[in-house]
Design a protein that fits this description.
The protein contains twelve helices and no strands. The chain has 300 residues and is an all-alpha fold.
């Protein structure tokens, strides 16, 4: 159990870099995500086809229906990334990653409906605490309404992705599932980009300068490494707990953005109180979840 929670918090720490990288890379959000998924799909295919085979596992064959399921989950992840990076580019890293904290709130709403179980009053209460923290944070500046709106959509999409990933992920091997998620998101985004470009010109489509280094780090560490950790964690820990713990991601991203982009100049007391409430909600949920598991293990 301790290992599961360690992996969860490690994945959150890694996720903290994604917002900063999204700001550093000069590509439009949709093109950035296209390159991210394309590179990740190629690397995972090569790895499974030529490296894993030596260790007794390899690229597995699935029915078309199974590929569609995994690809559909990948499309949710793809759309989350597009809106997430669009939020950051329309505002700043702090706004984009703080909006991501609403994932716990949306999960508390969506999961009972999708999985057909009763609403949890405790989970909803923790989510409201997070919502209060975000409300206080939004008081510090009203210039970034578009960024905030895009960030809210991004968090709702990630909540749907996490729930779907948990349900679908139980039936497939993690590395193979990640490959087909990347392929599904890539195919779907390729079909959507012409429509996207008609409303929002994407500008240049190839990385330039340091974009290559930033993309390499994003793909290897923040995509393949992070997604594998998330799939493993979601198989052991409830989606709500995972999503609520990911509310800590803004803390890491904001600290990084303070040093890289000097965003600390825009933060005030209300912002700090909001972040504190988000952290408290995560700590309380983690404590209750650990106690619940210990009780269940004792009964068994």
């Amino acid at each position: 159990m301790k290992k599961d929670y360690f992996l969860l918090h490690l994945s959150v720490f890694i996720a903290g870099f994604t917002g900063v990288l999204g700001r550093l890379i000069s590509l439009d959000s949709a093109i950035l995500v296209w390159w991210r998924m394309a590179a990740a799909a190629v690397i995972m295919f090569v790895y499974l086809r030529f490296v894993e085979t030596r260790h007794g596992t390899s690229l597995q064959r699935y029915k078309f229906r199974d590929i569609l399921q995994m690809g559909g989950v990948g499309m949710l992840l793809c759309l989350h990334w597009v809106f997430f990076y669009a939020s950051i580019k329309a505002s700043n890293v702090s706004i984009g990653v703080v909006c991501f904290s609403l994932v716990g709130f949306f999960t508390a709403l969506f999961e009972p409906i999708i999985n057909r179980h009763r609403f949890s009053g405790r989970e909803f209460l923790f989510s409201l605490l997070t919502l209060l923290g975000i409300y206080l944070i939004f008081q510090f500046d009203s210039r970034y309404r578009l960024g905030i709106a895009l960030g809210v959509v991004s968090s709702a999409l990630y909540a749907l992705f996490a729930i779907a990933n948990q349900r679908v992920g139980k039936h497939y091997e993690a590395k193979n599932m990640l490959l087909w998620e990347m392929v599904g998101g890539l195919v779907g985004l390729t079909c959507l980009i012409p429509l996207y470009n008609s409303f929002i010109p994407v500008g240049h489509i190839y990385p330039v300068g340091m974009d290559y280094a930033y993309l390499a780090f994003m793909v290897v560490i923040c995509t393949i490494g992070l997604c594998l950790l998330q799939i493993i964690v979601l198989q052991k820990i409830p989606a709500f707990t995972v999503n609520l713990t990911y509310n800590l991601e803004p803390v890491y991203s904001i600290i990084l953005s303070m040093f890289i982009f000097n965003e600390y100049k825009e933060l005030n007391f209300s912002f700090c109180i909001g972040i504190a409430l988000i952290i408290i909600s995560v700590v309380l949920q983690t404590i209750f979840e650990i106690r619940r598991r210990k009780t269940q293990n004792a009964k068994n």
